[in-house]
Amino acid sequence: MPHKQPPRRQSLNVGRGARKRDEDSGTDVGEGTDEWAQSKATVKPPDQLDLTDAELREEFTRILTANNPHAPQNIVRYSFKEGTYKPIGFVDQLAVHFSQVGNLIPKDSDEGRRQHYRDELVAGSQESAKVMMSETEMLEEEEEPKEAEAGSQTDVPAAEAAEKVVEEELMTPKQPKERKLTNKFNFSERASQTFNNPLRDRECQMEPPPRTNFSATANQWEIYDAYVEELEKQEKTKEKEKTKTPVAKKMGKMATRKMTSMESQSDDITKVTQAAKIVERMVNQNTYDDVAQDFKYYEDAADEYRDQEGTLLPLWKFQNDKAKHLAVTALCWNPKYNDLFAVGHGSYDFMKQSRGMLLLYSMKNPSFPEYIFSSDSGIMCLDMHVAHPYLVVVGHYDGNVAIYNLKKPHAQPSFRSSAKSGKHTDPVWQVRWQKDDMNNNLNFFSVSSDGRIVSWTLVKSELVHTDVIKLKMEGSTTEGLEGLQIHTVGCGTAFDFHKEIDYLFLVGTEEGKIYKCSKSYSSQFLDTYDAHNMAVDAVSWNPYHTKVFMSCSSDWTVKIWDHTVKTPMFIYDLNSAVGDVAWAPYSSTVFAAVTTNGRTHVFDLSINKYEAICNQPVVAKKKNKTTHVKFNPIYPIIIVGDDRGHITCLKLSPNLRKMPKEKKGQEVQKGPAVEIAKLDKLLNLVREVKTKK
């Protein structure tokens, strides 16, 4: 701020000036006046500067700053980047003159409110005490005159003395009691210290292990010789295993288990197959953790607001690059491992027949199949044995049947039919394992477009066939040369065996008819149903009711039958060719169907017997066609295959698997009898309607 320097006072000799003026004026000044003038004179310092008027009027500007005058201004630091010392641009100018630690509490804080509330309580209690004291004093004052009037005159002086004492007490001001303030620094701290054990060091010295120095040189010849020796060892072990008896083989296996790890081992990838498979499953479960959580716990909450509708939640999608251009022709769950299922790949196009594949997937590893088998002809059907879940039988497009053993990692089937063993001449559309025969030999049935239903028996190491029945169209005999009668052969497309009656089974044909057949009669049918106008794609017995079966066809319809009646009980038109149908394992009235327009339909006859309660597209593209569907025997999921080789796993919402509601005081009845009664009730309603018509 500008500061004007005050002009310095000039040292003037007042006595001399006064004397000169007096002398000039002619007046005489005495000694007293001289002394007064000297007392008023200013003392001039010896180093006083003599300034002119211009210098005295000059202004000097000074600026006040917040910089600390004692702060160093020449601090330098070494710069490793430039290799020189450089001054620091910023210097801390803060100077603390005074600091004090306080214990103030804001009024708006919780502690401040609590203290204020306590102060109000104390003040209120003091005021109430004062009021009580004043009331008691007033009562005493009122009672004293009454007592004085009633008393004798001799007591007047004593009463007057007492009144004077009371008046003096009232006149004297009462000092309020001092409130004891809480000392916030008055606290106690307790601590204890345990006894520390003295530290001890224990040391021991072992004998050093023996050391040996080894050195060698490796060249191409030594590496080659090592590989040759390893190959010779493997060939010798293979020759020994071929010549060994079964007992010797078992002994050899036990001996190999007891071999020490010091023996030389070949770098074979098969030795870490099991460990690699476990690690792969762990990685996939972490990758698809959200899908696994949905599979285990998710339930569609929106079903509570839907009266008679449900949804399908997509979970995993299974696909393999090798089967990319092959259609899914068959699906089957493993009867022992509920997370494992088999998929058959082939082609339904007669002009585009190529190879086939058998893949087995697990829900624990959706990224890659557990087993892969390839074949020269397309696989059109398959089935897994109930008692031996490692045996898979397949039917090929070229008419052959084959059995794959999952315990043997060979790519080729363990058993296969041939032209000599009586293979079919047309595609095999369905195969099904049956109970063992009288000699405990494995056997299965197959149906083909050549009109033959064949029973195959596994005897020792070959397949033996027996023609059970030949499909013949009724009323289609023609006379040939020399009066021979030629029968037109029916083309079988699907069949299913009764769940309780072993000899009874149904056969669907390309002509749209369904034949009820018996294993004991090969020349005639037990009954014939004019079921559909086009080929029958699937027939299936109800898992609970012994009289009910279901069929689907390319004529867009799904029909439910009572095998004792030749007319269908229920008919459903799905507006597209129906590829496959499947009954639900948990209910006698629930079934699913897939159509060629890529949709999946789920019905529950007990809820709605007129239309599906779920109609949902499954495939990603409209051009894709769904071909097969299967229910899981345990979990509420289904798998659906399409013509692009993809298998989609979907979870049923709660409305699609409704169970009987619990009633107060009554236990919910469950079991096959309840399911049979539920379906019987529906069938009786249909029968009553038909009889009225």
UniProtKB/TrEMBL annotation:
Residues 137-146 have a biased composition (Acidic residues). It is found in: Cytoplasm, Cytoskeleton, Cilium axoneme. Residues 1-49, 121-160, 235-267 are annotated as: Disordered. Residues 235-244 have a biased composition (Basic and acidic residues). InterPro entries: Dynein_IC, WD40/YVTN_repeat-like_dom_sf, WD40_repeat_dom_sf, WD40_rpt. Keywords: Cell projection, Cytoplasm, Cytoskeleton, Dynein, Microtubule, Motor protein, Repeat, WD repeat. Belongs to the dynein intermediate chain family. This is Dynein axonemal intermediate chain 1.
